[in-house]
Design goal:
157 residues, alpha/beta
Length: 157
């Protein structure tokens, strides 16, 4: 079902030099962000840009980005290969052999995540990366599962 390209460097896929995925280079608990995607070539640069702004503001954690390609036919993988160097050693790309659907793609990412905490995000920014700090605060309070829902006004609760 899934081709786990996380065993290869992104360089192997792109033909350039990159660092093997590794989240053990920083102190603190490891956090995996699992992001399934399908044909998100246009929004992935915004996702990476947002993560590049948000993650450095959250100290004390090691990061792993597990991106699951659910059979994209656009340039999504190329975008990931070009954006990954901004997150040295943190990006894992899992490529499914075809489109299996959002939930199977999410499960493939969860199966490959290595963090002590796992946060699932949608690539289209429906789940704002700005909420990662709040998720982690609840995790540090001892909650095993943290789930936010938007109400009809768009507020989260």
């Amino acid at each position: 079902m899934a081709e786990d390209t996380s065993r290869n460097t992104l360089a192997d896929m792109a033909g350039t030099t990159a660092v093997r995925p590794n989240i053990t280079s920083a102190p603190g608990p490891a956090v995996s962000l699992v992001v399934p995607f399908l044909n998100e070539e246009k929004v992935l640069p915004k996702l990476f840009g947002t993560l590049a702004k948000v993650l450095p503001t959250i100290s004390g954690y090691r990061w792993e980005l597990v991106l699951v390609d659910d059979g994209s036919t656009d340039g999504s993988v190329s975008v990931i290969v070009s954006e990954a160097p901004a997150f040295p050693g943190a990006v894992r790309l899992v490529r499914l052999t075809r489109n299996f659907g959002h939930q199977p793609a999410l499960m493939a990412g969860l199966a490959r995540a290595t963090g002590e905490a796992i946060i699932c995000l949608d690539a289209d920014l429906q789940d704002p990366p700005e909420l990662v700090a709040e998720f982690l605060a609840r995790f540090q309070e001892g909650h095993d599962v943290v789930w936010f829902l938007a109400d009809s006004s768009g507020s989260l609760g």
